[in-house]
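so im writing up the methods section and need the Outer membrane beta-barrel protein record in one place, dumping it here so i stop losing it
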Amino acid sequence: MMKTKLTNYLWPVLALCLLTLNNAHAQDTPPDTIADRKMDLTPTLGKKDYDDRGEEIKYPRVFGGLTFTRIDWGFSRLIDDGSFNLSEENQFLDYKKASNFGFDIAQIGLRFTDQFKMYLSTGFEWNYLRLKNNVILDQDATTLTYSASDVAYKKNILTSTYLRVPLSFEFRTRKNKHGDRAKIAFGAMTGILLKGTQRLKSEEFGKQKYRDNYNLATFQYGAFARVGFGSLGVFAKYYLNDMFENSPNQQNLSNFTFGLTLGF
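--- predicted struct ---
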């Protein structure tokens, strides 16, 4: 199964990064103070996981508050029963491009040492599916159904909006001579569906927007990994649940996303 294969692909990456963490910089780590932070790209309101008074930090340290960080922007691929090719039943969902965007707005966690912390955060996440076909998804349908349209749509986008809640375990190297660090984070994520939207644009009717849950999964869950240096990084997320619920034809249709992270 593709789910097992993709999960297995993450482990070599994590193992390599952890090996790097263990072997990096044998010297003692300088105290983590505000003076060492040359540029903080993560606006945060609340207790930080470093000492904002310029004093040496003491561990363990609880931190948390409002934030605006881990801004993800990337591409998505639908996986249909272990394949990147859609089955005949799901050809109406064939897409030109699929993308993912999200960010965190609040967090609470515990930094155990200078190199390891864990935290629970929450934010928002959007998935965009730019459909190739001129189809209109039926609203309030018991299962996911659609109607073919004679209109040639310039845009036909299915958007899902989720409240995301990831649990992260983050490691970082000791600082190099420039005060920079490499980081790796991984963990589990879940999300609650806030709304679904289909946006259409055509010469005949202009812009149209319809809101419905479109049988999108009420809850989504999966695993993620991030690797970065400083405030920039890359991410990969794999959603273990089906993208749609109560829809037998869409069983085992899931989502895989990857891209760039700012504020990591």
